[in-house]
Amino acid sequence: MANTPFMRPLTHLDRLEAESIFIIREVAAQFRNPVILYSIGKDSSVLLHLALKAFRPARLTFPVLHIDTTWKFREMIEFRDRIAKRHGLDLIVHINEEGLRQGISPLTHGSAVHTDIMKTAAVKQALDRGGFDAALGGARRDEEKSRAKERVFSVRSAEHRWDPRNQRPELWNIYNGRISRGESVRVFPLSNWTEIDIWEYIERENIEVVPLYFAKERPVVERDGTLIMVDDDRLQLAPGECAAMRSVRFRTLGCYPLTGAIPSRAATVREIIDEMRAATTSERQGRLIDGDRSGSMERKKQEGYF
Amino acid sequence: MEPAEKSLLRFITCGSVDDGKSTLIGRLLYDSRLVLEDQLAALERDSRRHGTTGGELDLALLLDGLEAEREQAITIDVAYRFFATRKRKFIVADTPGHIQYTRNMATGASTASLAVVLVDVRKGVLTQTRRHATVLSLLGVRAVVLAVNKMDLVAYERARFEAIAEEFRAFAGRLGIAGIAAIPLSALQGDNVTSRSPRMPWYEGPALLPYLETVGVDADPPGGAFRLPVQWVNRTGPDFRGYAGLIARGEVRPGDPVVAQPSGLASRIARIVFDNADLAVAAAGQAVMVTLADDIDLGRGDVLCAPEDPPAATDQVAATLIWMHDEPMLPGRRYLARVGTAEAIAQITELKHKINVDLLEHQAAKILGLNEIGFCNLSFDRPLALDPYKNCRDTGSFILVDRITNLTVAAGMVAFSLRRAANIVWQPLAIDKRRRSEIKGQRPCILWFTGLSGSGKSTIANLVEMQLAALGRHTYLLDGDNVRHGLNRDLGFTDADRVENVRRVAETARLMVDAGLIVLVSFISPFRGERRMARELMEEGEFFEIHVDTPLEICEARDRKGLYRRARLGQIANFTGISSPYEPPEAADYVIDGSDGDPEGAARMLVGELRQRGFIL
Ligand SMILES: Nc1nc2c(ncn2[C@@H]2O[C@H](COP(=O)(O)OP(=O)(O)O)[C@@H](O)[C@H]2O)c(=O)[nH]1
Q1: How far, in Å, CA of B96 to CA of B75, rounded?
Q2: pLDDT in tens, B210-221
């Protein structure tokens, strides 16, 4: 037949997208009460985009959970609320109230304690409270050496611990989501994506991300060789220290006092991709949490941090 | 070239310890400029401290030491690495070469369409190399690159390379691996890795990376008929019912006729929907949603396929099993099978042989241990849509899951359907269980006594039977000892034999229940899995598990038959409680304390329960 439509070959983004959508639908089919962990960053934005795509024309039925440490960039929170409204998301915002009362802050208690209480403990609280049996997250295997072996379906005990000795082998695209009472599964649909895949996909799909990813003049101070943005007046300047306006952007987003900016002029997705191709440092360099102690991600994971 | 035009190749690397695998992967990452400044600084530091290259950059250190994990007893299996060139993105499954190689390699190979097998040119084709090739062929990896490494150590000598390539081709050929590319290289020096090396002008083939950039990316043979395993059904409003899934094979267009397996119901594709748009065509590797022209009964686990070449609808297959758990596979035990998106209860009905991966030989076996590979017959509790694995991975593969721990214990690849499902029809019987039980004026059931040897099972069971006889009830007592003299005379005390022992007794008990009897079974039956199997053979509410719970010390002190003493002396192997485990029931229907010296009372209680529940009047 002259007008039989033919397939164009699938690209790497087509394949990654299909794999992720398959995984997200498996969660819908295998679990009773799943939730999406939404950190507002670029990976979460891609994850959310894929989840919406996976179910259309049906609506996304999973609630979306954001753990608010109260130290996120203000632009992140605005962005979160705007996106939730646009897609009609069932957004759950959880704050560790106990930690808040104790006045836990990354500035006075350091990144490790802050992350432990306001993030790791908070995730557990929120998952317990919601009774969620599956939590989807945007972690990727290329982020860090120790993640290279992480499963797509990662079983956690009732205490949310990850038992490295009891990992299930994962073959083909068969995911074993069977759990006993109280256990839950963390699911990572973006396991096989790299940072550059994420940006290429954001470009291809025209996905909106927090403007902090794009270079702009912002007030920053330099501390221990890291550029910290002065996002509100909780960041007290030392005597003699002063915020200077510099053209910077962020490769990852978290709590503003713990997230280093990089000097950049890349103001569009295309420019970010070009800059990355020429880049010479890895994504996690700007994250202060990793520097604390070597092997710290592995430890955090066992304790239930994402 | 536009980045979005890249294709994706998944491959696996295999090699023995020290063949240079990590260095090769490190080299690919490094040469494709994926190693960044901060990582490079760390690498230089580490190379000086731990490097094996005399202070030069040790690229192997870029990869997280799988060795280190072994020390920490973390489940070692597969690490995934990523790199990209202008033409392709690569996902590399990196598996450690030694311990647990079968399980790990199988996991890595299951998603790979190509394998890079490393050989140290000084060592040549080793036993390990043959194992790798065997596992690759079982997992259906049809394209293999034989990377003959460390050519720098033999002065790039052509003859050494060619001898190895020839030997490997001969072996792999026997396994049915046809697409072999042999490449001489030096991972350390970078010869023939990203570009042809001037040091081996005699080699006329491509360097490794250019080869990987151009080889075909599909795992299944080309040209197969359409398959869509239904993953999830999307019901949006009364008019839309979308069947979502990842197309496993072939292409599909609106209007195409399709058949749903295993039901055999036919329809036509109405629409192919993705993200609110209609597609004119979709193919293998795409996660789409389709709607059908007719309203047919279809759900998760069913497979939509081309009517001219559908998968078999079968409940019995022959398959290769790779055992992945410390606890061995026991024929007769029931496992949960995940077959694509379908779920069923599976039983290994026969282990035909074990495959010795070193010698490519078949060996007789009764059980399969960790990392062993066996060829088995399996039966499922319902018909499933299945293809031979070699024709289609997604509809020919399955995993087995332990139903108590939920762990994945095995990976399976369908060889062929036994097609017995269609042939055996139950002989319909005119007089049924209900009729027989009416004649007897009782409802049949099973009282299954489990507990340690000497716990008092038989004593209590005997008393129950006597009391029921006094009430004029028709019973039968199946006792472990007695059965071993007759029906199960051929069975020993290995785990495999114990499973078969219980299976036969359970089947016998079931026939007796069908005959209308109240059946008492007095059986150590140490494993939860088998007791559960027995329970599942019966109808709901017909099976009562009674745990005669007597502490080991007391059983041992009684020792009426002198068995414990002999077991302690090592004269009886596999003795429950001493040298073989007893798994106590987690939710027995009744727990009887067998140490308190009132078996009469226990028996009265059980008879009272039977009356209460309406089994006897
Ligand atoms: N070698 C071996 N023989 C056993 C084992 N358990 C039971 N037997 C034999 O199997 C028979 C059944 O014992 P059992 O059902 O425990 O008796 P009860 O608990 O006293 O009713 C005994 O006669 C023993 O000879 C065992 O674990 N190993």
Answers
A1: 12
A2: 999 998 888 888
* Cα separation, A258 vs A256, whole angstroms: 5
- The secondary structure of B193-260 as a DSSP string is TSS--TT-TT--S--HHHHHHHS---SSPTTPPPEEE--EEEEETTTEEEEEEE--BSEE-TT-EEEE
pLDDT for A221? 92
Nearest CA to ligand 1 atom 17: B453
Question: Quick one: three-class SS letters along A224-282?
Answer: CCEEEECCCCCCCCCCCCCCEEEEEECCCCCEHHHEEEEECCCCCHHHHHHHHHCCCCC
Chain centroid, CA A267 distance in Å: 21
Using CB atoms within 10 Å of the CB of residue A303, give its burial: 0 to 12 exposed, 13 to 18 middle, 19+ buried. middle
Q: B311 at the A interface (CB within 8 A)?
A: no
Altogether, the residues listed in chain B come to a count of 617
Contact B168, B394 (CB under 8 A): no
ipTM more than 0.85?
no
Task: Please provide residue B188's backbone torsions phi and psi, each rounded to the nearest 5 degrees.
Answer: -70, -45
For the entire predicted model, the pTM comes to 0.77
Write the secondary structure of B152-209 as one string of H (helix), E (strand) and C (coil): HHHCCCHHHHHHHHHHHHHHHHHCCCCEEEEEECECCCCECCCCCCCCCCCCCCCCHH
CB contact under 8 Å between A164 and B74, yes or no, is: yes
Cα distance between residue B407 and residue B397, in whole Å: 17
For residues A292 and B67, what is the distance between their CA atoms, to the nearest angstrom?
Answer: 24
Q: What is the CA(B574)–ligand 1 centre distance, in A? A: 10
Pick from B111, B285, B393: which is nearest to A10 by CB? B285
